[in-house]
Amino acid sequence: MSGRRACLFSVLLSLLLLQGSAFVEELDDSFMETKGSDEIWLIEFYAPWCSFCKQLDPVWHEIGSELRSLGSMVQVGKSDATVSTGLAKEFRVRTYPAILMLKKNTKYNYAGPRTKEGIMDFANRMEGPVVRSLSSPQLFQHAMSHHNVMFVYVGATSELKGNFTTVAEELIVHTHFFSTTRDVLPKSVSLDYLPAIVVFKDRTYLTYDEESDGDLKAWINRERFLNFQHIDSYTLYAMGESGKLVLLALVEERHLCSKSLRYKHLVERVAEEHKETYSRFFLFGFMAAGDYINGFVMGEVTVPSLIAVNLSNDGYYQPAGPVETERQLLDFLDGVLDGTIEMKGGNGFSQRVQRVIYETKATVIPVFRDAPLIGCFLAGFPLAIGAFFCFLCCRNQTIPDDDEDTAALLASSVPQRKKIKNKKSD
């Protein structure tokens, strides 16, 4: 009976995979010539040996099936970058898996987490117009319920709207852009002037002021993140464009201990209750400690712990003592801002050299630990090649000396032969 169930399960699984494959097209180097000019494509570039690509493959087929069932205009494809090298070069693929959107001959790179939810949100965001119109309060509330962060232009056509649309065309890969009129917004939203640009997030809103906030694109890059959130390596890397420091509670990946939960809640409370004081300088969140943050500090971080990172110069700050209370955390933040707490790391020359050494060790040591024979071969092979070339160089240097000695010997023997002949003639 169990054997029949297992057989039935495998058959159903195979059917599901085949169904998903029907909505994902394999693309080759001829794709750019055969595609339609108005087509929208979501493409994954993979390599057969890439383990992350293999993990993403079933998710990718789910995305293809779901987009088709929703009637989306987005077509889903994938391409073996090791075979279709021309297509990979066209899209400037450097790492795997690479996820890109092609919309009317414009290419957009997806840099978010490789999850179904994240990729689906990216596809839905890219499918429609760059700036979507919200024509009723119901549509506005629907957008608010589906997006944690949204930028809204309010007012009639103006130069500001043109600037807003230009920035949206570049940053649409990261966040959501809308336009509406004043009567669509809730009565609780107070605007001193129109037109205006408003960001809605963290259950509140902020209005853009060119005089105090500066460049519009820079402001949007600063404000496109929640004040407090769960942060992964993709998000942390993207936060570098905000120009803000990031305060992190470093916790376990699963099953948070009581101290981790206390740190997480402490950071969240400070982010919420002291938003007006620190939100201009800091983003807040919690993150599972791992290879990314270890590589950032070039060492093994303590879990749980607190750290403030400066992604613009690869610097970081750590509390000198224990942080158990809100007051102690506020003192730490003030110390970072006024310079009384020393920054570690950085991107100076010596730090870059140390980073290269650390990354080399981090790459080589696991190889020796998990596969010592392969590690010895990889380490010995370059040395053997180097020794062989040194041998050739030394041999080439000795050959001319031998030739000169031989030539001198021959030259010295010629007169002797002449003398012998002369004696015989006498």
UniProtKB/TrEMBL annotation:
InterPro entries: PDI_TMX3 (IPR052250), Thioredoxin-like_sf (IPR036249), Thioredoxin_domain (IPR013766). It is found in: Endoplasmic reticulum membrane. It comes from the Eukaryota. One of its GO terms (cellular component) is endoplasmic reticulum. It is a single-pass membrane protein. This is protein disulfide-isomerase. PANTHER family: PROTEIN DISULFIDE-ISOMERASE TMX3. It comes from Oryzias latipes.
